[in-house]
Amino acid sequence: MLSNNETFRFTFIKIYSSAERMSVEVFQIAGIPVPFSSDIDVTKLGHDDIFETYQLFRLNLDAHKLSLLPAFDTLLSLNLSRGVIPFEHQINSVKKLLGRFRGRGMLCDEVGLGKTIEASLAMLELITRGLIKRVLILVPPSLVQQWKEETFFKCNLEFITSDEKEFKLQGSAAWGKFDRIIASIHTAKKSPHSDAIQQENFDLIIVDEAHHLKNANTVGWKFLNSLKKKYIFLLTATPVQNNLEELFNLVTLVYPGELGTLKSFKKNFVSAGDRLTPKNYEQLRSLLGELIIRNRRATSDVKFTKRYAKTIRIQLSKSEKELYESVSDIVRNQYAGSPQQVKMALRILQEEIGSIPPAAVSTLESLRDKLPDSAAISDLIRQCNHLVFSEKVKVLIDVINTIPDKAIVFTKFRASHTAITTALEKCDIPYSPLHGGLTRHEKEKSIKEFQHSSKVLVATDVGSEGRNLQFCNHNC
Description:
The chain is 49% helix and 11% strand. By secondary structure, it is α/β, with parallel strands linked by helices.
């Protein structure tokens, strides 16, 4: 008569012998090297073998449980992620992306609803089930380090970035050597990197801030479209910004031909004279419902921190007011009848003069030879350069001095950024700059400094793109 242990081990051998292939696959996914043998003799196992045998039995039992899971109705990644308690809409999005969408789709939740968590959980789910091995994540330069940290700390997955020393030492061959890579899309799309990447087969490609690929005529769009991939996730909160053609271009990257040709798409769904307003709305909505996942704040179960918005009205100085009115008159008088390129420059000029005078200098200089009165424009340039410290900057400094906590100042134009940082420096207020002219490592350094020592972060649009700055409470 067999003891309990012997009976248990015999059962183990019976299960293993009928599931060898499945067991090996699961152990490879988990990264646990377990030696197996199909000819274990129960009678020769000693007392020291009992613990090891029990472990092997449990692993085989887990393998059988995995094989019995009903599609993606049960997510394994929820128990494997660390420090992540996903909201209901995030769990539903992952199930929908992997089940109904078959691993190819666009995550277009509104800002703050956790597209990164959804994509990370979906990726972890595919890895855990053994469906993918090679992963390429393409992001804006400022988000490379953030993605590396979040995939490690939340998913326990190690990625290498394309600017790490170990990666660079391999040259172009690195794109084929490493299985999990995070890279700046601006780096990846350029030769010689693009040539090497196009030769590789990736199981999954994730693209964050995918609205940068909205134009099918750009190098970035053509590059991503040329890559060989089994699954693809595009992440963006703004799939449409200027016209519906942008939406068509993004969907084409995920499901080529699903919306037909561009000509037929425009004919069926774009209103004449208004490229942003759809026609046959319900038909288009139904079609996109099989391609795009979009959760809204109003319908999600996320409880956001209450926001207090305050508009501060500023009384301009006499000279600044006169300058603003003079520039506005030029825009108003010259806009009608001007070429499209000049119209665009005039629109930008109006935005710039609404920021601070120095921000308008470069656009005025570009228009000097394109508009009738070049002497008048030269005079406006002189006035803009003279009004370096506008009333708006002075009020901003006063506001910052009243805030006991850290503050973020967002500005669209580099000239405005320079004027603000110059004023902060003169007032001995510690700040960290964040703009597109910095390298990735310089941006990371600025964020760390702001988190630990600086009072103010002065950022252009690059600072608002996917950055996690939840440790700060005030935005200006």
